[in-house]
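Predict the holo structure. Ligand: zinc ion.
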Amino acid sequence: MITEISSIQDWLKANYYKFSSSIKETECYKWSRWNKDQSTHMFPCVCQTRNDDCIFAEMYYRVWQVGQLLEQKDKLVNALLEYENRKGDKGLLKQWFYNHRNLGEGILSLEESIKIATRKEPYVTMEVVLPKEEIKHLSKFKEVYWSLV
Ligand SMILES: [Zn+2]
């Protein structure tokens, strides 16, 4: 199954109600906990059989993470401009890499297409395709940042 999202923030708003009711239906307590404090560390799902509610909750959470990155868009755009100005100077690029390590780490897991495991055996996934245009600065930053490692 593939879901295509055309606007991340609109999708998050439109699906918040569904997310809230899903987390009440699933036995996976971690989603309610996350919804309370948005703690950044999330453990993998341990449901014996994942129901649709747990799967949807993960989908919402994964899109939300990208939404959080998008809120730092100004920072990203500035960092990319800075990068362009420093191109060719190894020492300055090293400094750039170090200065932006928080953004870099946060963006490491960004994928244009999010895959969510719905079953372990046989292994089945569903896919969420993010809007390329909307996340282009994120993708660019990821590419540039991780090319310096
Ligand atoms: Zn679960």
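The helical segments are 8-25, 30-37, 52-70, 73-86, 90-99, 101-107, 136-147. The first strand starts at residue 2 and ends at 4.
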